[in-house]
Amino acid sequence: MNVGVDYYPEHWDVSLWEQDARQMQEAGITLVRLAEFAWSRLEPTEGNFDFEWLDQAIAVLARHGIEVVIGTPTATPPVWLTHHYPDVLPVDNKGNAMFAGVRLHRCYNSPSLRKFGKRIIEQITRRYAAHPAVIGWQTDNELAANDCHCENCTRLFRGWLQKKYESLETLNHAWGTVVWSGEYSDWEQVNTPLGGSPHLNPSFLLDFRRFSSNAVADFNRFQAALIRENSPGKFVTHNLWGYPVTADYYDMFDSMDFASVDYYPATDFLDDSKSKMYHGALTLDLARGVKRQNFWVMEQLSGTPGCWYPMSRTPFPGMIRAYAWQSVSRGADTIVQFRWRSARIGAEQFWHGLLDHHGQPGRRFDEFVQFSREARKLAPLLEGTTLKHDVAMLFSHEQLNAFQIQPQADGFDYLGNFKRFHSAFLRMGVGVDVINWREDFHGYKLVVAPMLYLIDDAIAGKLKGYVENGGTLVLTTRSGVKNMDNVCLPDRLPNLLTDLAGVYVDEYDPVGKDVQTLILATGEELASSQWCDILTPLTAETVATYASEYFAGEAAVTRNAFGHGAVYYIGTVLDERASQVLMKRIAGVAGIDFELELPDGVEVSIRSSEERRLVFVLNLSREPKEVPLPARNYVSALSDRRIPGESIKLGPGGVEILVEVNSTVTASA
Ligand code: GAL
Ligand code: ZN
């Protein structure tokens, strides 16, 4: 367990470095990430390199026992580069080149970016390959799929399509270009989706998103290979930006040793427009699922976020510590706070760090120091622990992209709907692994595969095999709608999944924001919206029926016994409470242990190893909470006090980390 900060020595007078490093050391910081935007300082003019300042900065940090992760600076091509080699700049769908001056102004397919990127990466990795304080590398910064329409991207997109479809005839057929006379008769006619209309052919749009996603994954592989060649033995990671994103993170991280995530939970609890960007627990579970292993947080919230929009509320007392522990509770092994000092210069002056512009420690800093002290104490206990779960949720960037291209109904949102299931388990204190839908899931007791809109025989076959062997599967509405070319399938929904679900969709109604009522056999009423499939059970039994509108009395949720397992089909989008009621019931039948009903804003998760189990209990709300706990004997790993179990009280932002007494030796002081 390491605690660090993001630091920009090049933004500060050299005379401050020593003081900064000393203060970092006193705060328990053992790691700094740096240089990820410093290309113009590392190569001030073409081919003239200057590493002396970085040598010196690393030396100062190393003298204070601080190790370093260096970021390759490719997210910010310097002015000389874009000026002399304009192919570096991405081109938008109207044919206009992006202006330099902010950041991320680079096309991954630009030959100049590759050429000069390769050289700066070689230079920097060779220079620090043997440096004992440099422990690893971060590629670029928050890579995202570009929507680039430059000449190079156009040429490569054509090549990508030629490889995929071989002939134009196949492409025309796969995309259905006959509609609106869109048929191509020469490869030269095929462009990237220019003009930006959302009504372009959806198959074309999805393939372009795949191409763009491939391009960024390829760019990451290009960097990883260069780093490994020149700095063997050191790790390579990348800091992903939160979801939702076009780029397929599973693909983008295949060249990385582990995943890192930048985690900025919302501080404006009441302003949904801002808090929507962040999905706390789900983001962290997705990050753990990228490589199906523990991860790092490369940027962790440290102060008032701002500059991209009016400033948000400052993290309320307890929040910096609580969210850092939340990251650890969901699998982070290293926490790097963004950033050490708040910038006095440049665009991000108001994205606050641990220290304000005046540089004097204050409340937020003290809270971080508390976390850092606690992290040091718990490091030996955390060593070798990870999260192990009986429930998996299958996540798919393909579905996310397809739904973004064709939103299905008013309010229908892939990630938002996905989150309802995830939160339902969270409220029961049941941990979930969120994994790539293409990966192996046979070992789980319960698999939730929401909205499998695009489908092929491979996934249908895997799901069948899983259930035949005794698994419990949850399928939902908007499944089996299309093939992987984003073309509607010809049979009744859910098409390739009809057998398995034992039910078909007779008719559907995209009800949008019109709230519908459902009734369970117990008489309990539930609510749903967005979409209603009117179901005809074949072999399935009905679990819930609609009780509103013209489809009252028709099946809304079914359960089908299949092989040794069972399949639930949820034909509508349940609201939060309904998701909880149904998931609780399904989890019970699937043999998932759950003993909790957690209050709003409270999370419980467990990191374990062969030797021990650590139960994290977090109150991420602004009110005091009483949290029920399974009646066992616990010792607090933070305070070493015995906790009798049954329930504990946590103040706003309260954190407790419990060691089950019979599971380990007590916390080492
Ligand atoms: C991240 C980014 C950082 C910084 C931070 C605050 O997304 O990686 O460089 O910009 O946001 O805005
Ligand atoms: Zn391009």
TrEMBL record:
SUPFAM superfamilies named in the record: (Trans)glycosidases, Class I glutamine amidotransferase-like
Domain (Beta-galactosidase trimerisation): residue spans on this chain: 390-592
GO molecular function ontology, one term from the record: beta-galactosidase activity
Binding site for substrate: 103, 141, 308
Catalyses which reaction(s): Hydrolysis of terminal non-reducing beta-D-galactose residues in beta-D-galactosides
Residues annotated for Zn(2+) binding in this entry: 107, 148, 150, 153
Every Glycoside hydrolase family 42 N-terminal domain range: 6-377
EC numbers, comma separated: 3.2.1.23
Domain Beta-galactosidase C-terminal: 601-659
Entry GO CC: beta-galactosidase complex
Keywords recorded for this protein, A-Z: Glycosidase, Hydrolase, Metal-binding, Zinc
First-level EC class: hydrolase
Family from the record: Belongs to the glycosyl hydrolase 42 family.
PANTHER family: BETA-GALACTOSIDASE GANA (PTHR36447), BETA-GALACTOSIDASE YESZ (PTHR36447:SF2)
Stated name of the protein: Beta-galactosidase
